[in-house]
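Board notes (copied after class):
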Amino acid sequence: QVQLVESGGGLVQAGGSLRLSCAASGRTFYRYIMGWFRQRPGKEREYVAAVTGSGALTDSADSVKGRFTISRDNEKNTVALQMNNLNPEDTAVYYCAAAWRGRVWPPTGDEYDYWGQGTQVTVSS
């Protein structure tokens, strides 16, 4: 069982920055593809970003490309999401997820095996 715990959410003004962190349990963290998803109010869950186990390859959704950066630290069993130039449309619950296997790159939401509880990000205008 892999446990994921997000932190770093909060309230920020438009144009500001926020850094989310996800702490993972287990000794095989480096083997997992890690991803960030979000669920905006009244909307379905959507993909944000993903990073391979080694950290060699990253990807991000068009909606956040150039503003958000995903990274991981396998020594600390953490994955981060640096969010810059935030706007009110970024307001959402952000979830960390881990995928042991992925059929495609980046993996789809259904391919992730473990999910965190989520952390709220609110961007005011």
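Comment from the instructor: The chain has a mean pLDDT of 97. DSSP finds no helices and eleven strands in the chain.
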